Amino acid sequence: METVKLKGGSPLFDKIFKIAAAIAATYILALITLIVFQLITGSYQIWTQEGISFLTGSDWNAVEGSESYGAAPYIVGTFVTAGLAMLIGVPISIGIAMFLSELAPKFLRSILSFVIELLAAVPSIIYGLWGMFIFRDYIRDWIEIPLNNVFGNNVWFFSGTPFGLDIFTASVVLAIMIIPTIASISREIMIAVPNSQREAAYMLGATKWEVFKMAVIPYSKSGLVGASILGLGRAVGETMAVTMLIGNATGPNAFPSSLFSPGQTMSSIIANEFAEASQGSLHMAALIGVGLILFIVAIAINIVAQLLVSRVLKAHQGAVLA
Amino acid sequence: MITIEQRAEFRKHFRNNISSRQAMDKIVKGIVFGCVALAIIPLGSILLEVVRQGAPALSTDFLTQEPGAIGSDQPGGIGPAIQGTLMLIGMSSLVGVPVGVLGGIFLSEYGNNRYGNTIRFFNDVLAEFPTIVIGLFAFIAIVLTFGSFSIIAGTFALSIIMLPIITRTTEESLKLVPVTYREAGYALGIKRWTVITRILLTSAKSGLVTGIMLSVARIAGETAPLIFTILGSDNFFMAFDQPMDALPLRIWRLSLLPYDSATMQGWGAALVLILIVLTLNIGVRYLFLRKRGGGRFRITAGG
User: Fold this and answer.
1) Exposed end of chain B (fewer CB within 10 Å): N or C?
2) pTM for the whole structure
């Protein structure tokens, strides 16, 4: 009886099912189109009002009558924090990936991969809370104040008054947050390097490091770049931890003047000022405009990264969900 | 890649400098160990502090009461936030799971063409969207259209974040089902959609559940999109078109208050949140991924 039931149903059901699946898949495309459309219409007002100076200006004044908006400091702030996070995070991530794919004994390998993925699972808000109440004191007393004492008068990026809530702290926490992403994708890319490459180098008498340098790195270079760029995309879009740690300066003051000065990123200004902006106001349009810029930057970064990573992994095991 | 010309060169190089090369190897290994330690220390510190600072805040009242006046002797609790997070998880799954699974079916069973590749690519791109942008979109599309911050708007935003994760994991797990299963079904004269729903989905069950649980763990910790959609509230659920509270949002608000008691409550809420997220993550890995060696499905927390 069961077979008969399974066989049942006219070919019409087949068609309906296929159409339902196609609609669900098309929904994804529709969403992306709608997001672009809504961000453009939502910020239309600010583009007509400010024009190009919304990108280049640095005034940020929401007082009615003298309203003026320029997003340049936040665009710069986003790139500076994300760039610093990459500078700190990428070498460490590559090191972890090397350990996991080349050096670690098998039992350590699975435990460590698990720990790294847990690090990725901790919500952003908890990184923010930890950074705000715990990490901030350590980084201020152990790193910022000593650096400031030694170099503060001579090197501009160590000047200022270390307070703990600044561009440096935000960047370090951002680095901690992107390490799991970059490390685990890099690990997969290194595992995808054919063993014959390594064996050829071992055969010549190379040490582990030399094998890594000569056989693994050249083979996986573009994938590692892709993994790093994917991490950059994460860092650019990251909101809560940065909002809680960067010190939230506005206007021309938000231009990063040193590592230890408070700053602001595109995502943090939106999160911070959203509650103050009334619906339909120019202020709201300005925030949505910042969102549009953030969106374009993040998407451009991501598309490049996806293309690089998937090209490397496709041959090995198909693309990864990153 | 090592070419034949390089080989002679390497061989010559390797004959000399053995001690310095081995020293270099040791140094690099040391640095690599250092990298691993540097990544584990923050995780250890976060887990330790959340438990140490959060545990004293926990009590039945804290978990069930509405927020009271901070600083008074009735500090209240995070009841509405817990209720909100659970409701958001449930409602977002109600939207995100069916659409995501259907999308995954399309990519795996009907998507071996140009249109399928396009969707696959944009699905991966959508998975990496800054979540704050998705929040802004839900704000414009739902909150501004219907005129109020609501749990509906929050559900809409979170379901968009879930969708690409579920679509991807569904596709990957359906592709793991051997083609002979499909052929056996067709040989019996079973219709294609019945083969998919009765045979393929059943075989790929563990992969599907993994994807769903990981996407739930991801949205449970999302904060940024909620600022623009559910707004936050001190009350338990009242109506679907009213503002609502959620754990991540409550943690943020508490962290901004300059009182020690608020900070302690924030840590307490963080402990509850991290328990939910890590239970889902560790549970999934323990139940399902172990067999397959893991690594295929990865999930990270966002905005």
Assistant:
1) N
2) 0.89
Q: For every residue of chain A, which 3-state class applies, written as one string?
A: CHHHHHHCCCHHHHHHHHHHHHHHHHHHHHHHHHHHHHHHHHHHHHHHHHCCHHHHCCCEECCCCCCEECCHHHHHHHHHHHHHHHHHHHHHHHHHHHHHHHHCCHHHHHHHHHHHHHHHHCCHHHHHHHHHHHHHHHHHHHHHHHHHHHHCCCCHHHCCCCCCCCHHHHHHHHHHHHHHHHHHHHHHHHHCCCHHHHHHHHHCCCCHHHHHHHHHHHHHHHHHHHHHHHHHHHHHHCCHHHHHHCCCCCHHHHCCCCCCCCCCCHHHHHHHHHHHCCCCCHHHHHHHHHHHHHHHHHHHHHHHHHHHHHHHHHHHHCCCCC
Question: By the CB < 8 Å criterion, does A195 face chain B?
Answer: no
* Closest among B26, B45, B40 to A92, alpha carbons compared: B40
Q: How many CB pairs under 8 A join A and B?
A: 336
Cβ separation of A179 and B39 shorter than 8 Å?
A: yes
What is the ipTM for the molecules in this complex? 0.89
Q: Answer yes or no: CATH 1.10.3720.10 is held by domain A60-317.
A: yes
CATH code for the domain in which residue B102 is found: 1.10.3720.10
Please state the φ and ψ torsions of residue B5, each to the nearest 5 degrees: -60, -40
How near does any CA of chain B get to the CA of A231, in Å?
10
- Tokens read off for B291: 């067999």
Q: Which residues of B touch A135 (CB under 8 A)?
A: 42, 45
Phi-psi region of B242 (alpha: psi -120 to 50; beta: other; left: phi over 0): beta
Contact A238, B128 (CB under 8 A): no
In a domain, B142, yes or no: yes
Q: What is the mean pLDDT of residues A220-248?
A: 92
CA A310/CA A92 separation, integer angstroms: 23
Backbone angles phi, psi at B76, to 5 degrees: 70, -165
- Residues B281, A134: C-beta atoms closer than 8 Å: no
A301 vs A308, B142, B282, CA distance in Å? 11, 28, 31
In a domain, B13, yes or no: no
Point out the residue among B1, B227, B285 whose CB comes nearest to the CB of A114: B285
Which residues of chain B does A98 touch, with a Cβ-Cβ cutoff of 8 Å? 32
Partner-chain residue, chosen from B133, B270, B281, that has the shortest CB–CB distance to A35: B133
Residue B136 falls within a domain, yes or no?
yes
What ranges do the domains of chain A cover? 60-317
Give the model confidence (pLDDT) of A137-187 as tens digits: 999 999 888 888 888 777 777 888 888 899 999 999 999 999 998 998 999
* Residue A209 touches chain B, beta carbons under 8 Å: yes
Give the distance, in angstroms, between the CA of residue A265 and the centroid of all CA atoms in the same chain: 13
B181: chain A residues, CB-CB within 8 Å: none
Range of the domain at B156: 78-292
